[in-house]
Amino acid sequence: MIEISITGTNAITFPYLEVWDWRIVVYLFLGGLSAGTLVMCSIANLRIPKQPVEELAQCFKAPFIAFVSLAIGAPFILLDLGRPFNSFWLFLTFQPLSLMSWGAWGVAAVLLGNVFYMFAVIPPDKRNLLKFAFFVKVAQWAASKMRTIAKINFALGIFLGIYTGVLLSSFSAIPLWNNATLPILFLVSALSSGAAMIVIIAHKPEIKFLFTKIDIWLIVAELVVILLFFYGLYTSTAPYKKAIEPFFSLTSEHFIFSMALIAIFLLLPLALRIKLGELKEFEGEVHGEFTKHQIFRMNFAAILVLTGTLILRAAIVYAGQLTKLSSY
Amino acid sequence: MPKYVMVIDVEKCIGCMACVIACKKENNVPPEHYRTRVVEEVRGEFPHLRMELRSELCNHCEYAPCIDACPTRASYRAKDGTVQIDKVKCIGCKACILACPYDARYSHPDGYADKCSFCDHRLKEGKTPACVETCLGKSRIFGDLEDPKSEVSELIKKYDASVRLEFAGTRPRVFYIKKKFAGGM
């Protein structure tokens, strides 16, 4: 038996870490959503190479949604800073070993690339809505380079999706976070949430159907990676094995994490089931418009995926801070 | 350049907590925050118990994860090898607090990260850290590991000193010596 009493503890680290809270969860969720949306709309815009460039932008709302997601999400990490007015220091240096430094520069780069993407996909008949002639010229130029811009945004989206996971996995002091599966898990869930978002916002039935099919694979991959994530920790050394306890103990004070895991394994398979049902219903092809009921069902499945992604990030962020390398 | 280290002789600690108080006074540590702590660890089953009193503080690690995690170089290695914080550059992102396996850091009410500095302002004056100077049992010993004749060098050689969480690979510069007792940290 070991009994420990400590004089001189700080509330931020004892009895467990209370360092990052819901603001980081929102940042990681919206960052992941933005990443996934960018990747998925790049796939939509790049998948048919033979059309004239002007008609290639099949997916023109998604870059805007991705930009808004990240533009809303990024300030949440600023809200978490103890000294937000000092944040200009982030841009006076680059620290290659610091993931926060990668994030500061990376998010800025993604937002910049995303701006060009937004210009590139504005339909020609809508360009007159741009207030300034300069913006119209930029939109014309960007549209002619749409494929290149889409490729760059695809890469930026992948970077952002991985980054949200690597940010956590870089902390060697936190056993739950510190493993190589987490960035893959966050990337896959980001891509899945992006596909879900495209399903919600897309008008064209074939685009909705395409991303329903893509999301089926992504949900399956996500469920497999979640299992691998926990299995990897379970087969690891003591602090890492202990780190997954909150997720598998309905009776402990941290049972909410078990509930989160159960919720994820209810929501995602349910979404998967609905999507597989759609696949069977349309038998691999889409004819004409969807009915309102079908659209509702697709959107419902997409919302399940988005909710699962949010719960996953919240659970990992909070549960990670219950775990330490030391025994107290 | 010197290589400042601290040796903690756990047998000599009497648990008076004078080090905790001296540190707070010397460094104006705000209420309810601490740069150093004393852990009282009781092991075994009654009546076969043994107690260890152990001081803990920033380990000024050679491979400091807090320095790697810092996006602005606010956490940096000083010329004397200690790990210090530039409060002006700190943005309060708290990445260093998460990166430290020893829970040595806290968030100052003014927003920046704070921790033990080995009383660098005192070192510049040729003094030892406040906790070392005030330690009644002489449990805390401070010195230069580069000097083979220093007390810390002698103690580390003589007592096969250990460090906290050696497996974390951070190469701490706070060493613990136990002449009689063994046990985890």
**Total individual domains of chain A:** 1
Q: Report the principal-axis shape of chain A.
A: globular
Strand content of chain B: 15-25%
Largest sheet of chain A: none
Helix-strand topology string of chain A = EHHHHHHHHHHH
Oligomerization state of this entry? heterodimer
Give the number of DSSP strands of chain A.
1
The fraction of residues in strands of chain A falls at under 5%
The overall average pLDDT of chain A, rounded, is 91
CATH architecture of the domain at 4-61 and 116-177 in chain B: 2-Layer Sandwich
The CATH class label of the domain at 4-61 and 116-177 in chain B is Alpha Beta
Describe this structure in words.
The complex is a heterodimer of chains A (328) and B (185). Chain A has eleven helices and one strand. By secondary structure, chain A is mainly alpha-helical. Chain A has a single domain (22-320), classed as Formate dehydrogenase/DMSO reductase fold (Up-down Bundle), CATH 1.20.1630.10. Chain A is globular, with a radius of gyration of 22 Å. Chain B has a domain at 4-61 and 116-177: Alpha-Beta Plaits. Chain B is built from six helices and nine strands; from the N terminus they run E-H-E-E-H-E-E-H-E-E-H-H-E-H-E. Chain B has helices spanning 18-27, 65-69, 95-99, 120-123, 130-134, 151-159, and strands at 4-9, 37-45, 48-56, 75-77, 83-85, 106-107, 113-114, 140-144, 174-177. In chain B, a hairpin with a 5-residue loop joins strand 4 (75-77) and strand 5. The two termini of chain B are 30 Å apart. Classes of the chains: A mainly alpha (328), B alpha+beta (185). At the A-B interface, strand 1 and helix 4 of A face strand 2, helix 2, helix 3 and strand 6 of B. Strand 1 of chain A pairs antiparallel with strand 2 (37-45) of chain B, so a sheet runs across the interface.
